[in-house]
Amino acid sequence: MLSLSVLLGSGASAVERDTITKVFRAQNPEKTSKPMAPAWRPDNSSEVLVMVQAFYDGTGDLEAKFKQTYWNPTYGEAKKTSGKLKLKKPGKMVWDYGDGQDADYYANGDTLWMVEHDTRQVIKTSTDGNSEVNVALKFLFGGEKLTREFEVRYAVEDKVQRYGDADHYVLELRPKAKNKHYKGLVLMVHATTGRVDSFVVYNTDGSSNYFQLKGIKTNVGITDKLFDFKLPAGYVETIEE
């Protein structure tokens, strides 16, 4: 999957703050007004993470439309795509991109298939090898409890101004165990339900992905058959270790 170099620490240098500004403008340059924050929030940010866990503990399946913004620091540019997302426990996902150019993704919890339509190639690998899928699986469907796996805090002001509004808490998460693919993420959590409506994955290579989920529906009865991946006619499958 497409993969912002923004540090999760609070003491950013002038260079880092300039990078943050460029990233935020690239993600959504038309947003200039200062957002509001919920009128009340728990004293401890981990309580919000418990809300997130509770919401997804009660979610058997989920479907939504998504918008994705990929920031590449090497070229200093953003790429925007969109599509449909469907998920079902335990760990099943389909990321269906709508442009016919970007790769689609299928995951069954352990295995990930990346379908490249331009080259008519399918790459089969482990879900652990893709940071965005791996992170989504962490907070959506399963794994250890979030409070055990991540250090959490309320986001610093730069991120609150960029991502926050009157209906959402903004959390910064860092994995307690070092991860070779991603170094942290930001969750925008609905203040009433605990639902994650958008999230940013910060990759170890300096890139990032910002996902916005719209029209979220849960427990709609998605069938297992949807996730039975079959190699399309004329495509070649490659197994990546």
From TrEMBL:
Pfam families: LolA. Keywords: Lipoprotein, Signal. InterPro entries: LolA/LolB/LppX (IPR029046), OM_lipoprot_carrier_LolA-like (IPR004564). It comes from the Bacteria. This is Outer membrane lipoprotein carrier protein LolA. It comes from Enhygromyxa salina.
